[in-house]
Amino acid sequence: MASLSALAEFGTEIKDCFSEESQYYNDAGIYTVFFYIGGKKTPVQVDDWIPCYGSKPLSTTTKSEEIWAILLEKAWAKLHGSYQRMEGGLPSNAMFALTGKPCWRHIHKYADDLFGLIKSYEDRHFVMVAGTSGGGEQEIEDSGIAGGHAYSLLSAYEFTERGKKV
After folding, report:
1. Which residues pair with 161 in a beta bridge?
2. Which pLDDT score is estimated for 97?
3. Which of 32, 35, 40, 155 could form a Cys-Cys staple with 19, CB 3.0–4.6 A?
């Protein structure tokens, strides 16, 4: 989901995940989504029948109730055999599957200047996501960030807090 959120900031990237005729509502309710599997652009067809609990979709939604996120999630679940089997994974793998573009992973403790890398990627308009190690919902050192989760990186800022650059 973090990869989808990050890609949504770059609208054309989301559009490229759909076939030309699937970029708009259609009466047939059939959509073709593309993922890059093993480096090959792979079409996955899904319908617009969405699993719901009551009147709410069981899958992801957007603020403006657009259907693209639900269709991408449904296609990803179809590719993996079920919604349950698609949980977890590295955000860089999801990003590559969505875009087919090279993705880099940097592990914080091994990166000399991680902030500098992130800032340079932002300056070059790269789509960025980040993940935390660990599992479950345990918060990392009172930071408000949950362990074992992925996040969209929308921007990088440096500021001073209590005399230290943060």
Report:
1. 164
2. 92
3. 32
Work out whether strand 52-53 and strand 56-57 pair parallel, antiparallel, or are unpaired.
Answer: antiparallel
132 neighbors 147 (Cβ within 8 angstroms) = yes
Contacts of 139 (CB under 8 A, 6+ apart): 145, 146, 147
Dihedral of CA 9/83/93/150: which sign? positive
Whole-angstrom distance, CA of residue 104 vs CA of residue 121:
11
Q: Exposed, middle or buried by CB within 10 Å (0-12, 13-18, 19+), for 34? A: buried
Cβ-based neighbour number of residue 3 at 10 Å: 26
For CA atoms 35, 15, 123, 165, the dihedral sign is negative
- Across-strand partners of 57? 52
Cβ atoms of 126 and 106 closer than 8 Å? no
d(CA 126, CA 111): 18
How far apart are alpha carbons 111 and 106 in whole angstroms? 6
Torsion angles phi and psi, residue 119, rounded to 5: -60, -40
Please count the other Cβ atoms lying within 10 Å of the Cβ belonging to residue 148.
14
Tell me: the pLDDT tens digits for 73-87? Answer: 999 999 989 888 877
